[in-house]
Amino acid sequence: MSGKLTDIGGNPTGAIGRLAGRLMNGLSTRFYRSMIETRLRDLLSAGRRLTVLDIGCGGGVVVGVFHSLIPDGRVCGIDHSPDMAALSRRKNRRAVRDGAVSIDEGDVAALPYPDAYFDIATAFDTLSFWVDQQAALEEVGRVLAPGGRLLVINGCPKEGSKWWRFVRLKTEEDYRTLLERSGFAAVKTEIVAKRIVVTSEKGQGA
Fold first, then answer.
1. For the segment 12-61, what is each residue's pLDDT rounded down to a tens digit?
2. What is the C-alpha to C-alpha distance for residues 155 and 157, in angstroms, rounded to an integer?
3. Residue 79, domain CATH
4. Which of 50, 57, 92, 182 has a 20 to 30 Å separation from 103 between CA atoms?
5. pLDDT digits (tens, 9 = 90+) for 83-93
6. Distance from C-alpha of 59 to C-alpha of 84, rounded to nearest angstrom
7. Which pLDDT does position 114 carry in this prediction?
């Protein structure tokens, strides 16, 4: 399915894409921060030097949130849009300059990171645009350390809407099935403010 909505969301480029990235920064910051602080509280409060990957980092807001929460950690963002990667670098330019944050261009299906490198991976409002969701999630599992955590947030479209017809994952059960099939365990789903929030851990066999 194509169209302005899905094209901008899946590959935000040019002036319109940059505007979309800035809008996402403004609209979602508070919600994303709340979900990170509450759903990953145990890891964030453990005092560890965490490594974090935000997939589809867009305007860079999630990268910035993690850097503020774990200033001694390592935060990486990746986006397949050069314009979004550039916007994310600008938003986090001080942390990038200091070496605490890095932003890469790349594909979730071929992540340029070593095995078992990250403690946390996040995918906020991006999973619907992944071409092969299972293969991509298996790749995310590859770069997560044993017991590493994945936090996914996606909108829950109204049944019968254009967005409902576009998304392949429509129910909480759809998400649980996909995550478990991709090697993740302890999958928990909930609906918060018309969005689905999914937490899971890298499974032993992943």
1. 454 444 445 455 555 688 999 999 999 999 999 988 899 999 999 988 99
2. 6
3. 3.40.50.150
4. 182
5. 999 999 999 99
6. 6
7. 98
pLDDT value for 6: 40
Q: Based on the structure, what is the number of domains in the chain? A: 1
Name 185's Cβ contacts closer than 8 Å, sequence gap at least 6. 200, 201, 202, 203, 204
Question: In which domain, by residue range, is 197 found?
Answer: 4-202
**Residue in this structure with the two tokens 């999914």, named with its chain if needed:** 198
- Burial readout 157-185 (b: 16 or more C-beta within 10 A, e: otherwise): beeeeebeebbebeebeebbebbeebbbe
Name the CA dihedral angle for 205, 189, 85, 94, rounded to a multiple of 10 degrees.
Answer: -100
* 3-state secondary structure at position 55: strand
Q: How far is CA 115 from CA 138, 142, 181, 194, in A?
A: 12, 5, 20, 34
Kindly state the DSSP code that residue 132 receives in the 8-state scheme.
Answer: S
Pairing of strands 195-202, 144-155: antiparallel
Residue 197: burial class (beta carbons within 10 Å; 0-12, 13-18, 19+)? buried
Spatial contact of 172 and 180, defined as CB atoms under 8 Å apart: no
